[in-house]
Amino acid sequence: MKNLFKKSWFFSILILSLILTVFLINLWIMSLNLKLIYQGESLLSLASNISSGGYIIIYAFILMLVFYISIIPILLSGFSLFRKNNWGILLSILYNLGFSIALIIFQTVHHYLSIFAIILIIFNIILTIGIFVLVIFRRRVLDYKKDDKEIEINDSKFPIIILIIDIVSILAFLTTFFIPLYSIIQSGPNYHATMIRVMFSGETNIRVIISFLVNFAIFLSVLLYFADALTHYFFDKEKFINKSKTLITTTFSASVIFFLTGLAMDIYLTISLNTVVQTVAFIPMLLMIIVVFAHAILIGKNGSQKQLSNGRHEIKYSKIEPLLYVILLTAITVLMLLLPIVKIDIIFGSFTNFVDLTGFDILRDYLSLDPGYRLIAFILVVMLISVGLCLVVAVTSYLSKYKRFNSIVKFATGVNVFFIFIVSISGYYFQIAKEINEVLILDIVNFYGVSLPNGIDFDYVISTDAIYALFAAVAVLILMFVRKAFDRDEETLLEANGLASNNTESNNATYDEEIDQAFDPCPSFTELDAKVEQFREDLKQRKTLKTKDASLNELVNFVVEYARNSRLHLSYTPEDIATFVSGLGSSRLSILQGMSGTGKTSLPKIFSEAVFGNCEIIEVESSWKDKNELLGYYNEFSMRYTPKKFTLALYKAALNQEYLLLSF
Fold first, then answer.
1. How far apart are the C-alpha atoms of 249 and 222, rounded to whole Å?
2. Is the dihedral of CA 187, 192, 197, 202 positive or negative?
3. What is the pTM of this model?
4. Quick one: pLDDT at residue 176?
5. CA-angle at 143, arms to 140 and 145, nearest 5°
6. How big is the chain by its Cα radius of gyration, in Å?
7. pLDDT of amino acid 594
8. Tell me: the pLDDT tens digits for 235-285?
9. Which one of 55, 90, 104, 623 is most buried, by most CB atoms within 10 A?
10. CB-based contacts of 481: which residues, under 8 Å, 6+ apart?
11. Distance from C-alpha of 589 to C-alpha of 477, rounded to nearest angstrom
12. Angle (nearest 5°) at CA 184 between 122 and 187
């Protein structure tokens, strides 16, 4: 069974079978009975009554046409599999995805499809993504080459753990369809704007419908990207790990967008409807933060293990001190909500009353306050989101040992100080505009239950305590400059190169000795030397296809037929091939003369391909004044020789003298 996955014909049969299965399921969906006013009718029966007119009937007729046209991509898929390429299959995949999306849009707008039909549509999408995986898997099997680095990664459990985290991240993002975007608290049953209701419960809220379509498009893109990454898991785990980073980042960003959308809906509906609106859209984001932290820890741990396996640390990772400063600044920013951003002291006679508006008070009561205070509430919301995301990114960068961690520290520090400064000066705005805000101040005082006697003169003083948070942030900033928290990149670079001044002479001597032992004057030749055993195995495989006692005429006729049946359908006479073979037999150097485009390159290529030889193409200019190196060059500073393509071809030919090697 395992050997079947190495056969291209097995994948061809499997892919074609799945494409036909998708087609039959689509036919089943088109034949199922609809709901509501079209109960007892199917999409196919509605399409047959096109003469009756009507928007739904026209849409059903278009769906029927699109369905029957899908036979063409199926035929093209079979032709593509026969020609051993993938363009027809990819066309069929895109066509089937488009048809499924059209059915989903039809259900989203009209809600006429049954629940069973919706389940079949989802199953069809899964099958289509599975076909996409098989197509990429088939291509990777044909091009599969294994190296030592891949063997080393295969020996660890790291890739399988990353795969599990990828799946968990997709499941965490999937919760956005089931967690309410927002909820309206009302006297009757509460309304929950849940996206999955668009498909199964007939949701008609236009905001929820648009959110569902956008979220579904993002989710489908994530699934396709994961399908592509999954194929790398079996052949190139290093690339799979890199693609997993992009996948985790994408799902986290999508969960943040979901949270921001829910928060924006909450604020908008609270102001426009003047009612209580709540949101729990932050739950997928919190789940994704846990996934991101777990992924970062694994990436950082894997990087450390690689260095330990190499025997020495080539990179010195950043210390935790800059991260602690970011955490401290974030704590100051958040705790600033406990400080009175606006303090109002009311003085009348010998009595004094006061109203302190903390950040939490402004966020809680923004709907009842003046628009100026709503602006502060908006700034506070943006502040909390920004500093929270900066903290998550900073912690993730540290855990994953990201090389630009200190740049992220600088950015996070700037964001925290900026918002602390903005909120601090906003408190002084109300102090400066004291006379302008007198009526508004009276409204605020009455709102918080401070009653002023009529006919009594009073005065009020406005101040702010938010400035203390700014003082604390400046103190932390000064400490960071004193401790050189922003200069860690340069220090790390120096230490990584062995230039730090605190290294002892004995360690330097040991390091130099290791460098001398590892010095390679020509790494390109060394790389070819390491592949000698691979060349021998390849030669042994080719010898199994060797023809016994072939005559010159048989060789010439075989090459002529092979060239004629090749992809380019090249046409050569037996005399042309015989002349070329005789030239190869008489001398190690043959020169083909002719104008550009007459086939001087095609002849050696098709000949070497026909006889299982190697062919190396060396690009040169037609002029003798070309300044490009042909053999290579020696660098006196690095004391290394850098060979060019021609020299590498000669060296490879010397290692494999039983091969026919044509270089031109």
1. 11
2. positive
3. 0.64
4. 94
5. 100
6. 36
7. 77
8. 778 888 888 999 999 999 999 999 999 999 988 888 887 788 888 999 999
9. 104
10. none
11. 72
12. 125
